[in-house]
Each structure stands twice: as structure tokens, then as C-alpha cells.
């Protein structure tokens, strides 16, 4: 096969390095990301099949990570010969597909002769070219590969050799149509960057919407503050308000450890279905952040607070009470503190059901009994206030706070809660520092309000919480990085001071840079980057 026929898609021009303890070789890509690796593998296989003149069509496979293409079984020999010749020049990995495998086969390097010994019941082959970032931290392996299935001709139908998320057969003489990329992976939405997930040639039988499809937009919202900004420090010093608990104005609440940069990277890498990202600040913008990227917007407190007299505020509860006033915000959105991260590819189904019901994640901890007491922390006081109002309105008692997992919120539920409890809501909005009269609008109250009005339900996902003041912080971070097996994690601290930050920063810089090595499109990098998904309403 002539090299020039597929040069645009092959990995031969990229350097390779060994990654991890397994000794696997991966191609180094400066913009390594899961969907980019997925599309690279798919496009490479598609180019090969086009060069061979073999018709193929995309199939909605059962995995969200990789892709599946179908070819008629009579082309099996030519496909395998072509793959063999190509992989001899551009080494990769492969596994043989079986209808009902006893266990998931381990991918083998294409240079291993054992890789080319298919089982007797092989119904296809999955091919991948591993990718990694220039530092070799993020290994994008075989799960992002492209599976080539051999479909059997039976009369005027082509029959699938194994289950997929669509029909078992298609018309053998049917014409290809273009299908939106979101039909082939739940990691993709209508708002995902098209270069990461272009439309695919498929068959009309696969264009029918599925009962598990999520077709509504989901936005992400952050609140962020730079406590080292002299102008902000002056506003804080001049603000009038009584601080009732040392945690309320702890420096740790306002320290910027650059977590926001990496949390947004986590969305870019692992939640590419997000439509728009909003960062709510007190007229602050991080030096590294671009504000001219479609689908990304910095929002001032002044734009969302209904009562300007409530500003300036230094109370996260106050700010959170106004988030649903963001202009253009989707009905369904995720609220992040900047110390929350997505840890591996997740679908929107982790946070919402296909009919739009939000999922919330109760903590195993318990809200202390009794009324608010002077010894309560701000968190406990707010939870008690939440409990009292919800009990009065719904006759139900809440007993658990929420985990530090991105909060899946319904904009309409927050608006209704504000209208239903105007005095408590306004009192929270007007508290310049955390007060014992606060509600916790996003992390508890709005979630339980949505649940009690039929718009939220409990969920579960794999989650880790790391307190930065832990004596074994280095070991905890190393375990997270080595495993990469949590859907979400939080790097939280309440009582750290600026002196603590100096000791922690080196650990955090190394960990965050290794876990999320690929810059997001909203970062100033000195290089042109693919745009954030184009916003729509």
C-alpha cells in the first residue's frame, strides 16, 4: 500500500516513547485527548478501507470509548492483509473480536507474532495506535481503538456478528447516510468540537433515537476567586460584616492554587459533551485564561446579582444563590468548585437521566441534630437551615450533606426555590461572609428541593476526596495518578494558610500537570488550538 495514500492519518510521522510499567509504546501527540485518540484511530482505519476500495459503515457499538465499523464478511481476507501491511510500517495494537468472549482479551503489539493468531470464532479485529502527551503521563490505549466487524450476508441483509446499540441487521444493498457523531458515543454531544467527533457514514437503520439518548444541552459553571489580587483584598478589607466562625474568612477559602486551569482541562479531556463553560468571578480573570473562545465566558457578580446592594460579597453561599441568573445558562448544568475534577471519561448519564432528572450524591456523613448552635461550622449551620425549611414545606427530614462531586442542577428548580423561600434566599444573598443564617443553595438545598419536587434522584459514581492538609498528601496524590480510576475527585482544604500553600504547591503542580497535561482551548499557550465547542441555545 503506497505510504502517501494514508499519510494524512497515519502515526508514522509522530515519535514513539515507552509509557508506564508495561513497556507499551505510544505515539506522542501534543494535544493528546481521549476523543482525539478515538477519532485518530477511526480515521486511520477508514482511510485504509477507502484505499482498499472496501465499503464500510459506522455502527453504534456498546462502548463509548472506541468506534466500530462494519464490512461484509467476504472482504475479511483483504482487510486483514491490508492491516498487516500497514501495521508492519506503523506498529500498533490489536485484539480479535468474539461474539461472546469469556473474558476481555489483552491487546498485543502488532509486532508480536502471537497477535496475528485469531481464535476460531473471531468475528472482527480491533486496532489502535496508542497515544500519549509529550511528558508520557496520559496513556490513551486500546479502548479508544477502532473495531472492524465482519457482517455476514444473508439474503438481502447483512447480519451483525455481535450485539450493538442498534438493530441486528441492515439492508445489504442499502445506501450510506451521514449520522451525527453523538449516535456512536455517549461521550459526544451536538456541542462537541467537530474535529474530535465528525459525522460518520452509516446506515439509515442506526439513525433512530434511542431511549437512553441525552439530547438536551448541559453547561458547566465555576465560581473562582484570586485571593492574592490586591484590588480584591482591598474590597474584602473594606467590606462590613461580622465573621462568626474562623472558617468563614479563612485564607484557605480564597487561595488560588491554579486548580481552575486544571479543572477546566478535566472537562476538555473527559467531558467533551459540555456545551458552554461559565466562570463566575468578582471581575477577575486568571492571567492564563483566554476570554475570546466560543463556548467559554467569564461572568461578573454584577451580571447575576438581582440586588446590587449585596455586592461585594466574599461568601460562596451568597454567590451560589445567584447562579441560575446567568444569561443563557442551560436548564441542566453542573456546578463546580475549582477544586473539583473529572478523573476519567464520563458521560452526561453520570449526572442526569435521559429524561432530564438530576442525580445527587449523598455523603455518608450526617447533619448534626438539633437547631443551629454557635459552635456549628458554617457548613453544618447551613445544612441545619436547609433541613428546617424543607421540613416545614415538605414534611421530610434531610439527614445527609452531599459529597464534593460536581453538583447536577436544574435551573428551574433553583428559580422555584428562590421564589418559594424569598426571605431565606435573600438573607443568604446579602451575607457578605458566611453566616449562621445561610442556606447552602447549590451543594444541598437546590438538590433536595429538586428531589422533593420530582426532578432529582440519588446517584453513585466512583469518587475520591483528598484534604490538602493530610500528612500523607504525596502518597494520596500518587495513588490517584497511578490508578486514574475515579470518575471525580476533590482536592479540598479549609484551614490551610499561605504558609501551608508553599509546602503543598510543588506536590500539586506535579500532580495536576501529570494528570491533566493537555491544555484546554481557553488557555494562552502561544499556539493555535482547536476551538471550544460552538455555543448554541
TrEMBL record:
Among Pfam families, the record links this protein to: Stealth_CR1, Stealth_CR2, Stealth_CR3, Stealth_CR4
The organism's superkingdom is given as Bacteria
Keyword Membrane tagged = no
Q: Does the keyword Transferase apply?
A: yes
Q: What are the Stealth protein CR2 conserved region domain coordinates in residue numbering? A: 253-357
Q: Which InterPro entries match?
A: Stealth, Stealth_CR1, Stealth_CR2, Stealth_CR3, Stealth_CR4
Q: Where is the Stealth protein CR3 conserved region domain?
A: 404-450
To which protein family does this belong? Belongs to the stealth family.
All residue ranges annotated as the Stealth protein CR1 conserved region domain in the record: 216-242
Q: What is this protein called?
A: Sugar phosphotransferase
Q: Which UniProt keywords apply?
A: Exopolysaccharide synthesis, Transferase
Natural source organism: Streptomyces bambusae
- Residues in Stealth protein CR4 conserved region domain copies: 479-529
Amino acid at each position: 500500500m503506497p505510504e502517501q495514500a494514508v499519510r494524512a492519518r497515519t502515526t508514522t510521522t509522530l515519535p514513539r516513547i515507552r509509557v508506564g510499567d508495561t513497556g507499551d509504546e505510544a505515539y506522542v501527540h501534543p494535544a493528546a485527548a481521549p476523543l482525539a485518540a478515538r477519532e485518530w484511530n477511526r480515521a486511520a482505519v477508514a482511510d485504509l478501507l477507502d484505499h482498499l476500495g472496501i465499503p464500510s459503515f459506522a455502527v453504534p457499538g456498546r462502548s463509548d470509548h472506541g468506534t466500530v465499523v462494519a464490512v461484509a464478511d467476504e472482504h475479511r481476507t483483504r482487510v486483514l492483509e491490508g492491516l498487516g501491511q500497514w501495521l508492519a510500517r506503523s506498529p500498533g495494537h490489536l485484539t480479535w473480536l468474539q461474539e461472546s468472549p469469556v473474558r476481555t482479551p489483552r491487546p498485543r503489539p502488532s509486532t508480536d507474532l502471537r497477535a496475528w493468531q485469531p481464535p476460531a470464532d473471531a468475528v472482527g479485529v480491533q486496532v489502535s495506535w496508542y497515544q500519549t502527551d509529550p511528558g508520557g503521563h496520559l496513556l490513551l490505549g486500546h479502548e479508544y481503538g477502532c473495531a472492524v466487524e465482519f457482517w455476514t450476508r444473508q439474503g438481502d441483509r447483512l447480519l451483525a456478528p455481535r450485539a450493538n446499540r442498534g438493530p441486528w441487521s441492515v439492508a445489504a444493498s442499502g445506501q450510506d447516510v451521514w449520522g451525527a457523531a453523538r449516535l456512536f458515543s455517549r461521550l459526544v454531544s451536538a456541542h462537541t468540537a467537530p474535529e474530535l467527533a465528525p459525522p460518520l457514514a452509516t446506515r439509515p437503520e442506526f439513525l433512530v433515537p434511542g431511549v437512553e439518548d441525552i439530547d438536551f444541552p448541559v453547561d458547566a459553571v465555576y465560581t473562582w476567586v484570586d485571593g492574592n489580587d490586591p484590588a480584591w483584598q482591598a474590597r474584602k478589607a473594606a467590606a462590613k460584616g461580622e465573621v462568626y466562625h474562623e472558617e468563614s474568612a479563612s485564607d484557605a477559602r480564597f487561595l488560588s492554587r491554579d486548580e481552575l486551569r486544571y479543572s477546566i482541562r478535566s472537562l476538555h479531556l473527559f467531558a467533551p459533551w459540555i456545551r458552554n463553560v461559565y466562570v463566575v468571578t468578582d471581575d477577575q480573570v486568571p492571567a492564563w485564561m483566554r476570554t475570546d473562545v466560543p463556548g467559554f465566558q467569564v461572568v461578573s457578580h454584577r451580571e447575576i446579582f438581582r440586588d446590587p446592594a449585596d455586592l461585594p460579597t466574599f461568601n460562596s453561599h451568597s454567590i451560589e444563590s445567584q447562579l441560575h441568573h446567568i444569561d443563557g445558562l442551560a436548564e441542566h448544568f453542573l456546578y463546580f468548585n475549582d477544586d473539583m475534577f473529572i478523573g476519567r471519561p464520563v458521560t452526561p448519564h453520570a449526572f442526569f437521566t435521559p429524561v432530564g432528572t438530576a442525580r445527587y450524591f449523598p455523603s455518608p456523613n450526617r447533619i448534626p441534630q438539633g437547631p443551629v448552635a454557635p459552635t456549628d461550622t458554617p457548613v453544618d449551620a447551613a445544612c441545619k437551615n436547609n433541613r428546617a425549611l424543607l421540613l416545614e414545606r415538605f414534611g421530610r427530614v434531610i439527614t445527609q450533606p452531599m459529597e464534593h462531586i460536581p453538583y447536577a442542577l436544574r435551573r428551574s428548580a433553583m428559580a422555584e426555590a428562590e421564589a418559594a423561600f424569598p426571605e431565606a434566599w435573600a438573607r443568604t444573598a446579602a451575607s457578605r461572609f458566611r453566616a449562621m443564617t445561610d442556606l447552602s443553595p447549590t451543594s444541598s438545598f437546590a438538590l433536595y428541593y429538586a428531589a422533593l419536587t420530582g426532578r432529582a434522584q440519588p446517584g453513585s459514581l466512583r469518587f475520591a476526596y483528598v484534604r490538602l492538609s493530610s500528612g500523607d498528601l504525596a502518597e494520596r496524590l500518587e495513588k490517584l495518578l497511578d490508578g486514574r480510576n475515579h470518575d471525580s475527585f476533590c482536592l479540598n482544604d479549609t484551614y490551610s494558610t499561605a504558609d501551608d500553600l508553599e509546602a503543598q504547591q510543588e506536590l500539586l503542580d506535579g500532580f495536576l500537570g501529570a494528570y491533566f497535561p493537555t491544555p484546554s482551548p481557553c488557555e494562552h499557550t502561544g499556539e493555535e488550538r482547536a476551538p471550544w465547542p460552538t455555543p448554541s441555545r
